[in-house]
Design goal:
9 helices, globular, mainly alpha
């Protein structure tokens, strides 16, 4: 039952994240995602064998304390952007912003369900709780300035040109850096405080709604 409640929320969260990138890119003049058929919530064009199926399945079977995954990245061509630096920054922030918005929406809906039913239990409430946790984890993870995560492009476009170019030399090694940080526990130490801080905000919002 928990798997049936978690998986749809994860799938929707990662797909909405990628669609947001593509939609903002489209609004900034880049039709690449639209032409590739990626501006849709239909899960089939977005499924990544490893990130959408294998990784979540391993986490579920190993009884990991959290569920995580990703969809196939939408294609973005910055050469179409009207203002490349500004528009690339907007596109990079779109996914994280969408996940935070979904976390807020799930929190508000959970409050409404709790007020109507008089309890935060039940399948619908549990699904919304998973939606809050999954979207916050995705937002916090993706905002980290480690290539190829969204936060790396945000930092790149905020840095002075010389520092940005020096920082970009790290991009080919980003995945290795992520694995090392994950295996040493450093990544968890970075994510946990941010996760707790956002969860406190969501709890405050929930308290207001209820």
């Amino acid at each position: 039952m928990e798997i049936l409640l978690m998986v749809p929320m994860l799938l929707f969260a990662v797909i909405a994240h990628e669609v947001a990138h593509g939609y903002v890119a489209f609004r900034c003049g880049d039709p690449t995602a639209q032409q590739a058929g990626r501006l849709t919530l239909n899960p089939l064009p977005h499924i990544d064998l490893f990130g959408t199926i294998v990784v979540p399945l391993i986490l579920l079977l190993s009884h990991a304390p959290f569920l995580f995954g990703w969809a196939k990245p939408v294609p973005v061509n910055p050469y179409y952007f009207r203002n490349p630096s500004r528009d690339h920054l907007y596109v990079s922030l779109a996914g994280v912003t969408t996940n935070l918005a979904l976390a807020v929406a799930c929190t508000l809906l959970l409050g409404i369900v709790a007020r109507i039913t008089g309890s935060a239990g039940g399948a619908v409430a549990l699904m919304l709780q998973y939606g809050i946790v999954i979207n916050i984890i995705l937002a916090v993870f993706n905002v980290l300035p480690i290539p190829p995560l969204d936060g790396s492009w945000v930092l790149y476009h905020l840095l002075p040109r010389d520092m940005a170019e020096a920082y970009r030399r790290l991009f080919p090694y980003g995945f290795i850096i992520l694995i090392v940080l994950l295996m040493t526990g450093v990544l968890g130490g970075i994510i946990s405080p941010l996760y707790r801080m956002i969860m406190q905000v969501m709890s405050f919002i929930l308290g207001i709604v209820i």
